[in-house]
Amino acid sequence: MPTTKPRHAITETAAVAHALDVARRRWPGQPPTRLLTRLIEAGTLVVEQEEADERARHRRALEELTALAQHYPEGYLGDVRTGWPE
User: Fold this and answer.
1) Which of 23, 45, 54, 58 has the greatest number of beta carbons closer than 10 A?
2) Tell me, what's the pLDDT at 84?
3) Is-above-0.85 flag for pTM?
4) What is the Cα–Cα distance from 59 to 41, expressed in whole angstroms?
5) Which of 65, 7, 1 is nearest to 36 (CA)?
6) Which DSSP letter does residue 7 get?
């Protein structure tokens, strides 16, 4: 099919063959090119969700660290650093 978009070649390694077998179970009757496209689309959703989860974990960790600030007086770090060598 003619297109002006870039094309990508994928060699059917053992991992790709396995992925196609899994995709055939999920989307039977589809040609391999469509299965690969669907796998890419599904994988994108998973990666994006993992990224969002990681951002949420990072945000929670920062909130927990920020909550600790109430236990240390103003200038605490400066006082600690005074004894550090430069």
Assistant:
1) 23
2) 80
3) no
4) 27
5) 7
6) -
